[in-house]
Hints:
This protein is of the alpha/beta class. It has a 7-stranded parallel sheet with strand order 7-8-9-10-11-12-13. It has a 3-stranded antiparallel sheet with strand order 1-4-5. 50% of the residues are buried. It has 13 helices and 14 strands. The mean pLDDT is 97. Strand 11 (247-249), helix 10 and strand 12 form a beta-alpha-beta unit. It has helices at 57-61, 64-67, 75-83, 94-112, 116-119, 151-165, 179-192, 208-217, 233-242, 256-264, 281-293, 307-319, 365-378, and strands spanning 3-14, 19-21, 24-26, 29-39, 44-49, 127-129, 134-135, 169-173, 197-201, 223-227, 247-249, 270-273, 297-300, 350-352. Helix 6 packs across helix 7 (179-192) and helix 11 runs parallel beside helix 12 (307-319). The longest helix is centred in the N-terminal third of the chain and has 19 residues, at 94-112. The chain folds into 2 domains: 3-117 and 364-378, Enolase-like, domain 1 (2-Layer Sandwich); 121-352, Enolase-like C-terminal domain (TIM Barrel, Alpha-Beta Barrel).
Amino acid sequence: MKITNLKATTVTLPLESPLRHSNGAHWGRFVRTILEVETDEGITGYGEMGGGGESAELAFAGLKPYIIGHDPFQLEALRFKICNPTASLYNNRTQLMAAVEFACLDIIGKKLDVPVYQLLGGKVRDEVKFASYLFYRLPNEQTGAGEVRTIEQLLSHAKDLKQKYGFTSHKLKGGVFHPDYELECYKALAAEFPEDRLRYDPNAALSVEDSIRFGQEIEGLNNDYFEDPTWGLNGMRRVRSMVRIPTATNTVVVNFEQLAANVLNPSIDVILLDTTFWGGIRQCIKAAGVCETFQLGVAVHSSGELGIQLATMLHLGAVLPNLAFAGDAHYHHLQDDILVGGKLRYENGAIKIPEGPGLGVTVDKEKLAEYAELYRELGGYTYDRDPARPDWFAYVPNQIWADHV
Length: 405
């Protein structure tokens, strides 16, 4: 089998409301690039990639000389074609490789008539649990609804998500307001859901000292982990030495050299594996094996997925015996998806592993065209800007906070 063509299509899909984070916001929609990889046997596989509110079509076009003519079964050779470590000093293609791998695994599964998890060692669970993933939100531009700014709005939003989807873990995405106010919000969540698990993630916006102060204030709560309160392995190591909560990251351990450094001199207790950031599902499984050896925790990270990437997260979660935490997903914030049948369903806070061949999801060509046209109308957006604060940009650690009043 040979790859004969690849086609990249940028889409934008509406969110319920703009989602704020420490570096800016998702401006009421996600921008994703959908990759179609065609073969000489008529089998097409699908991949997906984000890009901070921007299209990746030109980057994928530049991969054609590397990919066309390649056997999609030869994934390890393809990884070195695209991500040779020396060449990658000049053209880091890790996230591009991830989308290509997704599509190739989809092709292989369809060719062999098995789900991707069978190619990865077989599933050890039938579903993956997810956390509620709570954001501070701006009002929807069309309806004015959906704002999350006050503690009352946050609790109402969390209760609504728990009722709709059955979440029993709650992640608060912080780094927007002053940490003293976000501490009040987090404690209010703990009081509202005393039986549920909690996690806090300010996207490395806090200083080491504020991280320690915040962490010590929440030590007695039902925490899963303390995610990226500050930047860097050494900063996280200092926090870990002073706070009795497991630390977690999706920013400072995202490759094997960083993982090795963390094993040798621990800063992070729980590695949040992202199928895009690590360069594919297979790389995440390799990393999970290292974590299993050294008794580091793992969880499935979200980088703003539509249904194709969500399927990769589900197949990853299916095969990891050491997955002890609910995963993250932005998915419930979406108003729609590009899949036949619409969005995948949550049941009791979990989504079932797709059982069809390949990734087990089918792209709706009409939806793909509809949201590609919407992208052509609206264009991209600047992920690292906040539409409510047009003159602001983030420092690390941040010093200028949004007004919650």
